[in-house]
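Annex B. Sample input.
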Amino acid sequence: MAEPTRADNPAGLYSILEELDRLEDLLEEMDDLGVASRADGERRLAELHDEVSQKTGESPRLEP
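Annex B, continued. Sample output.
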């Protein structure tokens, strides 16, 4: 089935469908990464930044 285009849908419907698609993708990615919340994602980002710093010998990043 072809993806709907802006011309195929009444005003506003395309943007709703687009947001639905983006949110579904986001939830799938979060599940794949084992991230249950924004806080989990931010915590994991910090861990990975620190791990990269350790492996490259760079100073750990500073919290904003």
